[in-house]
Design a protein that fits this description.
Order of helices and strands: EHEHEHEEEEHH
Radius of gyration: 17 Å
Largest sheet: 7 strands, mixed
Shape: globular
Bound molecules: inosinic acid
Distance between the termini: 5 Å
């Protein structure tokens, strides 16, 4: 198992979530807060996997430390998997959560098939660029016709979880962590590390 790991995300909510789940492992955890001069790379990959790898390699090189990075997206069956890798920028370069939700609800307005899923890919890279691990987590749901609840972030208010039987906008952080794509990918990574210890 690694002795040191930097959680390479500028999203403080995500960093806290990752730190919490990894805190009982014998790994010295670091965050990008310790490296304020590092700017975010452009996410030019065509897949979630490519972007997770690109970010892990970029930050590992600049921090000179093994780095964990993730990329996630929402995939709607009726839109052939869109927004997918474009989830964050679905409504354009200056997209906000609100404008993204508005565009997706509009694009899905006449769709009866509401199946969708959140997908998360996590990659771990060494400073020289070698990818040590890549794992994926999925969370199935239905796309709602309007926002329900105000909790969470991003597309949470329009995602109805098939497992929780409620919108992510209504779920507590603890409920969401029990089924979320990110938590699932991270659990898979921890399993792999423990097996190959
Ligand atoms: P990223 O993983 O931070 O790159 O997220 C990509 C896009 O997916 C952003 O628009 C996020 O708001 C959205 N997203 C990722 N995870 C979640 C989630 O758990 N709930 C709601 N939206 C999410």
């Amino acid at each position: 198992m690694l002795r040191q790991l930097c959680i390479a995300t500028k999203n403080e909510g995500k960093a806290a979530e990752f730190m919490e789940m990894l805190k009982n492992l014998p790994i010295e955890l670091h965050s990008l807060a310790e490296f304020p001069g590092i700017v975010e790379p452009e996410e030019t990959g065509k897949t979630l996997s490519a972007n997770a790898r690109l970010k892990a390699q970029y930050y590992a090189k600049l921090t000179n430390m093994p780095c964990l990075a993730d990329d996630s997206g929402l995939e709607c069956a009726a839109l052939n998997g869109a927004p997918g890798v474009l989830t964050a920028r679905y409504s354009g370069e200056n997209a906000t959560d609100k404008s993204n939700i508005e565009k997706l609800l509009s694009d899905m307005k006449f769709c009866i098939r509401r199946n969708c899923c959140f997908r998360c890919v996590i990659a771990v890279s060494l400073p020289e660029g070698k990818i040590l691990n890549e794992v994926e987590g999925i969370c199935d749901g239905l796309l709602l016709h309007e926002e329900v609840g105000t909790a969470g972030f991003g597309y949470d208010p329009i995602f109805w979880s098939k497992e929780l039987h409620m919108s992510f906008g209504e779920a507590t952080q603890e409920q969401k962590n029990a089924v979320s794509h990110r938590a699932r990918a991270l659990k898979r990574l921890i399993q792999i590390w423990k097996k190959h210890r």
